[in-house]
Design brief:
7 strands, 5-stranded mixed sheet
Length: about 250
């Protein structure tokens, strides 16, 4: 994004971000809704998860072992401190999906002044199983009277999502071809817990801190939304085409 900013440019980019965001958000939700059956846990873990009827899945044992390994290394330490015991089969799990906008904390500084701001990435969303959003997990972790069984279910739903995606590389390939890459990362409050997210090939970024602070002062809220990188629209390509072209060029050398 161009480093030369004015308040007018910020307003123009904000309007463009929101207009484009409506299109991207609608398309993202439509693709995720269509592909939801591929996120089913039993499609990967088979009878290691309780459900009505039998469902034998090749590789289910190895997938469950990976889940156990992740659980033992992540769930038993801060901030979860859960028991190491993980019995099979696991309780029946929710398989429908929900999307939550990706947010992070940014400390903006200008002329010796600093301000802590919650920043939203408008074209990036966390994918979780329904009822297991990051907000609910954060609330549960701060609840001194929380039920460890409930917390365990949260952790297992996040870990299951991670394993399901990693065991089905075609799922990520489909979304990448559609310009909605799928990946995972961590969030500060949740230790090493893998957070699966979907984003757009069109990226966003923050303007200089001075404009961010000015904007929050005008709005009266310590919140800001990243702005679209317009050049990404012009650079959109076809990943499959690029792969084939690369193969073609290599064969001619």
């Amino acid at each position: 994004m161009n480093d030369t900013y004015t308040t007018q440019k910020l307003l123009t980019l904000r309007k463009l971000t929101r207009t484009t965001g409506e299109i991207i958000d609608g398309q993202m939700k439509a693709y995720v809704a269509t592909l939801t059956p591929l996120f089913r846990q039993r499609a990967v873990f088979g009878e290691y998860i309780q459900a009505s009827g039998k469902e034998t899945v090749k590789g289910a044992e190895q997938a469950f072992k990976e889940l156990q390994s992740l659980y033992e290394s992540i769930a038993t330490v801060a901030p979860f401190h859960l028991s190491r015991e993980l019995n099979s089969p696991l309780m029946q799990m929710t398989s429908s999906l929900e999307l939550t906008p990706w947010e992070y904390i940014h400390t903006a500084a200008k002329d010796g002044e600093s301000r802590t701001i919650t920043v939203t990435c408008p074209f990036k969303s966390i994918i979780t199983y329904t009822g297991y959003s990051p907000r609910r997990l954060r609330e549960l972790l701060t609840n001194r009277n929380r039920n460890d069984g409930e917390l365990q279910q949260f952790v297992l739903h996040y870990l299951a999502m991670h394993v399901v995606v990693s065991k089905q590389p075609g799922l990520a390939q489909i979304l990448n071809t559609l310009h909605f890459p799928l990946a995972s990362s961590q969030l500060p409050d949740f230790g090493a817990l893998p957070i699966t997210y979907i984003t757009s090939s069109i990226s966003t970024s923050l303007p200089p801190d001075g404009l961010v602070i000015e904007s929050t002062e005008l709005s009266g809220k310590n919140a800001f939304e990243e702005l679209i990188n317009v050049g990404d629209i012009e650079n959109l390509g076809d990943p499959f085409k690029h792969r084939l072209m690369g193969t073609l060029k290599a064969s001619q050398q």
